[in-house]
Specification:
By secondary structure, this protein is α+β, with helices and mostly antiparallel strands. It has 2 domains: about 120 residues; about 120 residues. About 30% of the residues lie in helices and about 25% in strands. The strands form 2 sheets. Strands 6, 7, 8, 9, 10, 11 and 12 form a 7-stranded antiparallel beta sheet that branches. Strands 1-2-3-4-5 form a 5-stranded antiparallel beta sheet, covered by helices on one side. β4 and β5 form a beta hairpin. α3 crosses α4. It starts with a helix and ends with a helix.
Length: about 250
Protein backbone atom coordinates (compact mmCIF):
# COMPACT_ATOMS: atom_id res chain seq x y z
CA UNK A 1 0.00 0.00 0.00
CA UNK A 2 1.24 3.48 -0.84
CA UNK A 3 2.93 5.15 2.13
CA UNK A 4 1.04 8.43 1.66
CA UNK A 5 -2.26 6.52 1.74
CA UNK A 6 -1.27 4.81 4.99
CA UNK A 7 -0.23 8.09 6.64
CA UNK A 8 -3.44 9.78 5.45
CA UNK A 9 -5.50 6.94 6.89
CA UNK A 10 -3.54 7.06 10.15
CA UNK A 11 -4.36 10.76 10.47
CA UNK A 12 -8.07 9.95 10.48
CA UNK A 13 -7.76 8.51 13.99
CA UNK A 14 -6.57 11.93 15.14
CA UNK A 15 -9.37 13.70 13.26
CA UNK A 16 -12.02 11.44 14.77
CA UNK A 17 -10.51 11.96 18.22
CA UNK A 18 -11.05 15.70 17.74
CA UNK A 19 -14.57 15.01 16.55
CA UNK A 20 -15.26 12.71 19.50
CA UNK A 21 -13.94 14.84 22.35
CA UNK A 22 -14.06 18.51 21.30
CA UNK A 23 -16.94 20.90 20.88
CA UNK A 24 -17.83 21.04 17.17
CA UNK A 25 -17.02 24.17 15.18
CA UNK A 26 -18.84 25.31 12.07
CA UNK A 27 -15.68 25.28 9.96
CA UNK A 28 -14.72 21.79 11.18
CA UNK A 29 -11.48 23.14 12.63
CA UNK A 30 -11.86 21.02 15.77
CA UNK A 31 -10.83 18.03 13.62
CA UNK A 32 -7.74 19.59 12.03
CA UNK A 33 -4.21 18.79 13.10
CA UNK A 34 -0.98 20.54 13.97
CA UNK A 35 2.44 19.47 12.75
CA UNK A 36 5.27 19.70 15.25
CA UNK A 37 8.74 19.75 13.76
CA UNK A 38 10.44 19.12 17.11
CA UNK A 39 9.05 15.58 17.37
CA UNK A 40 8.14 14.90 13.71
CA UNK A 41 4.50 14.36 14.54
CA UNK A 42 0.95 15.31 13.69
CA UNK A 43 -1.08 16.22 16.75
CA UNK A 44 -4.69 16.91 17.71
CA UNK A 45 -5.76 19.99 19.60
CA UNK A 46 -5.68 19.39 23.34
CA UNK A 47 -8.58 17.06 24.06
CA UNK A 48 -9.20 18.28 27.62
CA UNK A 49 -8.09 20.98 30.04
CA UNK A 50 -5.21 18.77 31.18
CA UNK A 51 -3.49 18.92 27.79
CA UNK A 52 -4.27 15.36 26.67
CA UNK A 53 -3.61 14.78 22.97
CA UNK A 54 -3.25 12.07 20.33
CA UNK A 55 -0.33 12.21 17.87
CA UNK A 56 0.96 10.36 14.83
CA UNK A 57 4.72 9.94 14.75
CA UNK A 58 6.30 9.71 11.31
CA UNK A 59 9.65 8.35 12.50
CA UNK A 60 8.31 5.15 14.06
CA UNK A 61 4.94 4.97 12.25
CA UNK A 62 3.00 4.94 15.50
CA UNK A 63 0.23 6.67 17.40
CA UNK A 64 1.12 8.34 20.69
CA UNK A 65 -1.35 9.20 23.45
CA UNK A 66 -0.08 11.81 25.90
CA UNK A 67 -1.92 12.51 29.18
CA UNK A 68 -0.58 14.05 32.38
CA UNK A 69 2.95 14.01 30.90
CA UNK A 70 2.79 10.25 30.39
CA UNK A 71 3.05 8.86 26.86
CA UNK A 72 1.71 5.56 25.53
CA UNK A 73 2.91 4.53 22.05
CA UNK A 74 1.02 2.17 19.74
CA UNK A 75 2.90 0.97 16.65
CA UNK A 76 0.65 0.72 13.59
CA UNK A 77 2.53 -1.95 11.62
CA UNK A 78 0.31 -5.04 11.30
CA UNK A 79 -2.52 -3.53 13.34
CA UNK A 80 -6.15 -3.74 12.28
CA UNK A 81 -8.68 -0.94 12.43
CA UNK A 82 -10.52 -2.61 15.32
CA UNK A 83 -7.32 -2.95 17.34
CA UNK A 84 -6.57 0.76 16.92
CA UNK A 85 -10.09 1.84 17.86
CA UNK A 86 -9.92 -0.40 20.93
CA UNK A 87 -6.58 1.11 22.00
CA UNK A 88 -7.74 4.72 21.59
CA UNK A 89 -10.96 3.93 23.47
CA UNK A 90 -8.91 2.44 26.30
CA UNK A 91 -6.63 5.48 26.43
CA UNK A 92 -9.60 7.85 26.52
CA UNK A 93 -11.19 5.87 29.35
CA UNK A 94 -7.93 5.80 31.31
CA UNK A 95 -7.57 9.55 30.82
CA UNK A 96 -11.14 10.06 32.06
CA UNK A 97 -12.32 12.00 29.04
CA UNK A 98 -15.99 12.86 29.34
CA UNK A 99 -17.06 11.26 26.04
CA UNK A 100 -16.40 7.90 24.35
CA UNK A 101 -14.19 7.65 21.29
CA UNK A 102 -16.02 6.96 18.02
CA UNK A 103 -14.46 6.48 14.59
CA UNK A 104 -17.00 8.22 12.41
CA UNK A 105 -15.87 10.14 9.33
CA UNK A 106 -18.25 12.80 7.98
CA UNK A 107 -16.54 13.02 4.58
CA UNK A 108 -15.46 10.58 1.89
CA UNK A 109 -11.86 9.64 1.24
CA UNK A 110 -10.56 8.19 -2.05
CA UNK A 111 -9.72 4.98 -0.14
CA UNK A 112 -11.32 3.18 2.76
CA UNK A 113 -10.65 0.84 5.66
CA UNK A 114 -12.32 -2.53 5.12
CA UNK A 115 -12.96 -5.33 7.61
CA UNK A 116 -9.70 -7.08 6.66
CA UNK A 117 -7.58 -3.92 6.64
CA UNK A 118 -4.21 -3.90 8.36
CA UNK A 119 -1.48 -1.31 8.25
CA UNK A 120 1.64 -2.45 6.45
CA UNK A 121 5.27 -1.56 7.13
CA UNK A 122 6.05 1.52 5.04
CA UNK A 123 9.52 2.06 3.60
CA UNK A 124 11.57 4.27 5.96
CA UNK A 125 12.80 6.40 3.07
CA UNK A 126 9.21 7.12 2.00
CA UNK A 127 8.21 8.12 5.52
CA UNK A 128 11.24 10.42 5.65
CA UNK A 129 10.32 11.97 2.29
CA UNK A 130 6.79 12.73 3.51
CA UNK A 131 8.16 14.04 6.80
CA UNK A 132 10.55 16.32 4.92
CA UNK A 133 7.68 17.69 2.83
CA UNK A 134 5.63 18.50 5.94
CA UNK A 135 8.63 20.12 7.60
CA UNK A 136 9.49 22.17 4.51
CA UNK A 137 5.92 23.38 4.13
CA UNK A 138 5.57 24.23 7.84
CA UNK A 139 8.77 26.26 7.81
CA UNK A 140 7.98 27.97 4.49
CA UNK A 141 4.51 29.03 5.62
CA UNK A 142 5.79 30.26 8.98
CA UNK A 143 8.56 32.27 7.28
CA UNK A 144 6.19 33.77 4.69
CA UNK A 145 3.62 34.83 7.27
CA UNK A 146 6.29 36.48 9.40
CA UNK A 147 7.87 38.30 6.44
CA UNK A 148 4.49 39.64 5.29
CA UNK A 149 3.20 40.43 8.81
CA UNK A 150 0.20 38.14 8.28
CA UNK A 151 -1.46 36.02 10.95
CA UNK A 152 -2.78 32.48 10.62
CA UNK A 153 -2.68 29.10 12.29
CA UNK A 154 -0.87 26.53 10.18
CA UNK A 155 -2.98 23.38 10.24
CA UNK A 156 -3.41 20.09 8.41
CA UNK A 157 -6.97 19.42 7.27
CA UNK A 158 -7.60 15.66 7.44
CA UNK A 159 -10.00 15.45 4.49
CA UNK A 160 -7.69 16.75 1.75
CA UNK A 161 -4.59 16.32 3.95
CA UNK A 162 -3.10 19.67 3.00
CA UNK A 163 -0.95 21.84 5.22
CA UNK A 164 -2.78 25.15 5.02
CA UNK A 165 -2.96 28.73 6.23
CA UNK A 166 -5.57 31.44 5.67
CA UNK A 167 -5.17 35.13 6.29
CA UNK A 168 -6.98 38.38 5.59
CA UNK A 169 -4.65 40.88 3.91
CA UNK A 170 -3.77 43.88 6.02
CA UNK A 171 -4.07 46.44 3.19
CA UNK A 172 -7.74 47.24 3.81
CA UNK A 173 -8.85 45.68 0.52
CA UNK A 174 -11.01 43.01 2.14
CA UNK A 175 -9.10 40.35 0.22
CA UNK A 176 -7.79 37.17 1.79
CA UNK A 177 -5.43 34.38 0.77
CA UNK A 178 -5.35 30.64 1.30
CA UNK A 179 -2.05 28.86 0.82
CA UNK A 180 -0.18 25.73 1.70
CA UNK A 181 1.05 22.33 0.52
CA UNK A 182 -1.35 19.88 -1.15
CA UNK A 183 -0.94 16.16 -1.73
CA UNK A 184 -1.17 14.78 -5.30
CA UNK A 185 -4.63 15.20 -6.82
CA UNK A 186 -6.40 15.79 -10.14
CA UNK A 187 -4.68 19.17 -10.51
CA UNK A 188 -1.07 18.05 -10.00
CA UNK A 189 0.35 14.52 -9.90
CA UNK A 190 2.73 15.24 -7.01
CA UNK A 191 2.83 17.33 -3.84
CA UNK A 192 2.62 21.03 -4.64
CA UNK A 193 2.55 24.42 -3.01
CA UNK A 194 -0.51 26.54 -3.74
CA UNK A 195 -1.86 30.03 -3.11
CA UNK A 196 -5.22 31.55 -4.04
CA UNK A 197 -6.84 34.92 -3.43
CA UNK A 198 -10.44 35.59 -2.38
CA UNK A 199 -12.69 38.63 -2.25
CA UNK A 200 -16.28 38.74 -1.06
CA UNK A 201 -16.35 34.92 -0.78
CA UNK A 202 -15.30 34.43 -4.41
CA UNK A 203 -11.99 33.27 -5.92
CA UNK A 204 -9.95 35.98 -7.64
CA UNK A 205 -9.42 35.41 -11.37
CA UNK A 206 -5.75 34.98 -12.33
CA UNK A 207 -6.05 34.99 -16.13
CA UNK A 208 -4.69 38.54 -16.48
CA UNK A 209 -1.78 38.06 -14.05
CA UNK A 210 1.79 38.17 -15.35
CA UNK A 211 3.81 34.96 -15.48
CA UNK A 212 5.32 33.81 -12.18
CA UNK A 213 9.09 33.45 -11.85
CA UNK A 214 8.54 30.21 -9.95
CA UNK A 215 5.42 28.10 -10.52
CA UNK A 216 2.42 28.86 -12.69
CA UNK A 217 -1.07 30.31 -12.51
CA UNK A 218 -4.18 28.17 -12.78
CA UNK A 219 -7.63 29.50 -13.58
CA UNK A 220 -9.74 26.44 -14.37
CA UNK A 221 -11.48 25.12 -11.25
CA UNK A 222 -8.76 26.20 -8.84
CA UNK A 223 -7.86 29.85 -9.34
CA UNK A 224 -4.40 30.58 -8.02
CA UNK A 225 -0.72 29.75 -8.26
CA UNK A 226 0.94 26.37 -7.93
CA UNK A 227 4.54 25.23 -7.55
CA UNK A 228 5.55 21.59 -7.72
CA UNK A 229 7.24 20.53 -4.49
CA UNK A 230 9.96 18.70 -6.43
CA UNK A 231 10.96 22.09 -7.89
CA UNK A 232 10.92 23.94 -4.58
CA UNK A 233 13.32 24.34 -1.72
CA UNK A 234 12.01 26.04 1.40
CA UNK A 235 13.38 29.40 0.28
CA UNK A 236 11.95 29.04 -3.24
CA UNK A 237 8.52 28.22 -1.79
CA UNK A 238 8.67 31.44 0.26
CA UNK A 239 9.62 33.44 -2.85
CA UNK A 240 6.75 31.81 -4.74
CA UNK A 241 4.25 32.82 -2.04
CA UNK A 242 5.66 36.35 -1.87
CA UNK A 243 5.60 36.94 -5.61
CA UNK A 244 2.08 35.55 -5.94
CA UNK A 245 0.91 37.72 -3.05
CA UNK A 246 2.16 40.83 -4.86
CA UNK A 247 -0.42 40.25 -7.59
CA UNK A 248 -3.25 40.20 -5.06
CA UNK A 249 -2.20 43.41 -3.28
Amino acid sequence: MDTLVQVHLASQYLATAGKSFLEPKADDSHTNLGFFTNDSALRTWDLDEMGTFLAFQYDNFALKWVAKNKADVFTLKGKSHDQIVEWISKMALTSKLNKPYTYNLHYDLPYSIGDDFKFESPKPEELQRLLHLRTRSQNALKSFLQKESLESDIRIWPHHFDTGAFSVLNDGSGKSIGLGLAIPDSLVDEHYFYIGGYHEHGSIDTSAFKTLTHGEWKNDGFKGGILRASDASESKAVLFFQEALSFYN
